[in-house]
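hiii, so i know i said id send this last week but things got crazy w the move. better late than never?? heres the sequnce for the chain we talked about at the cafe, plus the structure i predicted for it. fair warning i was half asleep when i ran it
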Amino acid sequence: MKKNYRGLQPKTQQEGEQEKKQWDEKTLNSRAEINVLESHTPKQQVAEKTLDTQTQIVLHQLSQLKQMITEHSLCTKDVLTMPEAAKYLSLSEGYLYQLISKGVIPHYKPNGKKLYFSRQELDNWVLSNKQQSRDEIRQSAEDFLVTGKRT
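okay and structure toks below
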């Protein structure tokens, strides 16, 4: 038999048609698989995205609940630790250490190391050194003019 330019023997017409038929069937099967995948993938992706979104919502709500519980426990405790006091006062721990070293804020060191704070004393410290409003200053000035004494 004569070989073609690729070095292969030429096929009979019947063999060629059979090979083409097999090739077409493989192609059709591949296309069908692709169509099936394409039809399922978007739904699956939507389901996964929905699940991811729902999971994120639940995690966010859990985080909010945890924060609320922490804040509530800070408001009910009488004695606070350093991190709790910093959170309670909305200050960084570093700045709170500065206030402690300057002797500005009341604190306790029962064992000489760990710092504790009385929540009531922190409240009093926060509310100390009140700045009067303009109306209060005006009222004080009027009272002074009338009585000649500071109030």
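btw DSSP finds five helices and two strands in the chain. thought thatd interest u
miss u guys!!
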